[in-house]
Amino acid sequence: MSGNRVLRLLVSAAVAVAVVGLTAGCGPKAAASAVASGTPSASASAGAGCQQVGTVNFDKTKFVLHAGLAFGAFHHFIYAPFKAGSFTSGAKGRTSALVKAGLAGLFTAHEMSVAKTDAESSPTLCKLVAPFDQASSAIGGLVSKIKNGSASSSDLDKLNGQVNTLQSSAAADGDAAPDQIPSATQLATGS
User: Fold this and answer.
1) 108/69 Cα distance (integer angstroms)
2) Among residues 169, 185, 189, 186, which one has the least CA distance to residue 177?
3) d(CA 47, CA 40)
4) How far apart are CA 115 and CA 61, in angstroms?
5) Distance between CA atoms of residues 21 and 156, nearest Å
6) What own/partner pairs with CB < 8 Å and gap ≥ 24 does 19-25 have?
7) pLDDT tens string for the chain (191 positions)?
8) What is the CA radius of gyration of the chain?
9) Closest by CA position to 63, among listed 183, 153, 173
10) C-alpha to C-alpha distance for 102 and 31, rounded to whole angstroms
11) How far is residue 140 from each of residues 13, 63, 80, 147, measured CA to CA in Å?
12) Are 71 and 159 in contact (CB under 8 A)?
């Protein structure tokens, strides 16, 4: 298998899992009640992210933890190595960088999903649900481009912009979630 093909498969798998994790919605209860009532789910309607306020204990604290880990994993293991050229064919440590990026993609998707649930529960942070959905859309667009081989650095820059928007929006609401770099164990276990 050629190096580019392996890269595409690894990145596609990581991004696909990230899309599934970020678009999981509000859980089976919300989906079932939306189907039963004929109304869209909480994440699909405007301002609906605030309908689940109070469902998570210590929501702001958990949001800062999970969002910080997601932002740190994305920036440290995906964005920075990509910008440094670590994923290009022939780069020293390329295989290691690709494996770490794949794990970081899965980890980022999981932590973003948990952080979104925490944000939905907080009256202060519930307005961040829409930026989480925008980041999810950006990841979905990147998946398509990776699959057909047309992904570029501007595509990753766009996704980085979405992540940075989430981070700055949280800080503006008084709940800064600075990058927290996950340990190798956290990456490997996904938690």
Assistant:
1) 7
2) 169
3) 12
4) 10
5) 19
6) 19/109, 19/136, 19/139, 19/140, 19/143, 20/109, 21/106, 21/109, 21/110, 21/112, 21/113, 22/109, 22/112, 22/113, 22/116, 22/132, 22/135, 22/136, 22/139, 23/136, 23/140, 24/113
7) 555 554 555 555 555 444 444 434 333 333 333 333 333 333 333 345 576 777 778 888 889 999 999 899 989 998 898 889 888 888 899 889 888 888 888 888 888 888 888 888 888 888 888 887 787 667 666 656 665 657 688 888 988 998 898 899 888 888 888 999 999 888 888 77
8) 17
9) 173
10) 29
11) 12, 23, 21, 11
12) no
Determine the residue type at 55: T
Nearest to 74 by CA among 183, 170, 132, 160: 160
Spatial contact of 26 and 52, defined as CB atoms under 8 Å apart: yes
Q: Which two tokens stand for residue 128?
A: 């961040």
Burial of 117 (0-12, 13-18, 19+ CB in 10 A): buried
In this structure, what token pair is assigned to residue 86?
């670590």
Determine the Cα–Cα distance for residues 16 and 147; give it in Å rounded to an integer. Answer: 10
